[in-house]
Specification:
The chain is α/β, with parallel strands linked by helices and about 260 residues long. The protein has 8 helices and 9 strands. Strands 3-2-1-4-5-6-9 form a 7-stranded parallel sheet, with helices on both faces. It has a two-stranded parallel ribbon with strand order 7-8. The structure holds D-galactaro-1,5-lactone.
Length: about 260
């Protein structure tokens, strides 16, 4: 497949792009910053929130699918979060409709349901329950994907990613870790599974301590192979661990992240 990867210079993009190439896909990068050293593929220096610039990329490239990773990966004001996550997603979806690109795989986040208290099993049918304005942006981006799947018959897979890191670093990560290799597996499955329509999955590895349902992902062909447990001996307990364990979103669901929605002069 010929895949446009937005946020290709970011932490996930730098791992995913070569991973997709290794699996036989052709990657076209898009980011607000230049291509990382060693990336010789096609590259567009574009802000994904600019609909004209995004449309120009689609007019220039023949694409089979889009993997949308661009977006600030932490908390911000509500307007900034909406621009970063919702406007970018909408700009891509409009261009996809215009140019008949039928599949979007989106780096959504566990923070879309981050304020959900810990239960036995977190399913993908739980109600949207963001823990931050970042999470609000992810919920709204998923809603725009769902709208475009219903209106135009697009396939749009929202990967609610846990903690994408080389290795788990905290007790929470022993449940929420997504390994680099599993991330590539997850995105490839989301790109190639037949006719998912709108679908959501939890993007974590097969962690022994995981409590987010992996069945929705397995139904889409995502078969995680790694387990954070192999790192458990190296993780030191911290005072914050108990508060982080109370909700899906961990630290994002604690008071430390409370802020007003709007920045004032
Ligand atoms: C995310 O979605 C964030 O981008 C990242 O900063 C972490 O907070 C991660 O989730 C997580 O929940 O560990």
């Amino acid at each position: 497949m010929r895949v446009l990867v937005t946020g290709a210079a970011g932490s996930i993009g730098r791992v995913l792009s070569p991973g997709l190439v290794d699996r036989g896909h052709e990657v076209v990068g898009l980011d607000r910053v230049p291509a990382p050293d060693g990336n010789d593929g096609r590259w567009h220096l574009v802000d994904a929130a600019d609909p004209d610039a995004v449309a120009a990329v689609f007019a220039e490239e023949r694409l089979d699918a889009v993997v949308h990773l661009a977006g600030y990966p932490g908390e911000g004001s509500l307007p900034d979060s909406l621009t970063s996550h919702v406007v970018t997603t909408a700009a891509l979806l409009d261009a996809m409709v215009e140019h008949d690109v039928r599949r979007l795989v989106y780096a959504s986040s566990n923070h879309a349901v981050g304020r959900t208290p810990r239960t036995d099993l977190l399913t993908t049918t739980t109600r949207p329950r963001p823990d931050t304005f970042y999470g609000v942006g992810k919920v709204a981006a998923e809603a725009v994907m769902s709208l475009y799947a219903d209106r135009y018959g697009l396939d749009a897979v929202a990967c609610r990613i846990g903690s994408f890191l080389p290795e788990p670093e905290t007790v929470r990560h022993l449940s929420t870790w997504l390994s680099h290799d599993d991330c590539v597996r997850m995105v490839e499955a989301s790109l190639t599974t037949p006719a998912p329509g709108f679908a959501a999955l939890y993007g974590i590895s097969a962690n022994t301590r995981g409590w987010w349902d992996l069945e929705a992902g397995r139904a889409l062909g995502y078969d995680p192979q790694d387990d954070a447990e192999e790192f458990a001996d190296r993780i030191a307990r911290r005072d914050a661990d108990d508060a982080e364990a109370a909700h899906v979103g961990g630290p994002f669901a604690t008071e430390e992240f409370y802020r007003s929605a709007l920045d004032r002069a």
